[in-house]
Write a structure and sequence with these properties.
By secondary structure, this protein is α+β, with helices and mostly antiparallel strands. The chain has three helices and five strands, in the order ααβββββα. Helix 1 crosses helix 2.
């Protein structure tokens, strides 16, 4: 089963007895804040957001480096980037069971 954004908005609106537009604005704002914060990772600092109890988002700066093209086995320069990872802690995993 796939739970879409609109499904979440409806569930939260019903649970908190709010209108859907307000909940959608809150979720949109949360998304923007998370994107802005995760994009702040640099070579000196990783960024970790403890989004919910047991759910962490982490962004890590990866500097440019020489890599290999797996098809041709030739060296290529990989541009610097920000790697995003998500981790569920044991607390969250245990709550799911």
């Amino acid at each position: 089963m796939i739970i879409k954004r609109d499904d979440l908005v409806t569930s939260i609106a019903n649970e908190l007895e709010l209108n859907k537009c307000s909940v959608k604005e809150i979720i949109d704002c949360l998304e923007e804040v998370i994107k802005e914060d995760l994009s702040k990772a640099n070579k000196n600092d990783d960024i970790e957001i403890k989004l919910f109890k047991g759910l962490k988002l982490k962004s890590t700066y990866v500097p440019s480096h020489v890599g290999k093209n797996p098809k041709t086995n030739k060296d290529i320069i990989v541009k610097d980037k920000i790697k995003i990872s998500c981790k569920l802690t044991d607390y969250f995993k245990n709550k799911l069971l």
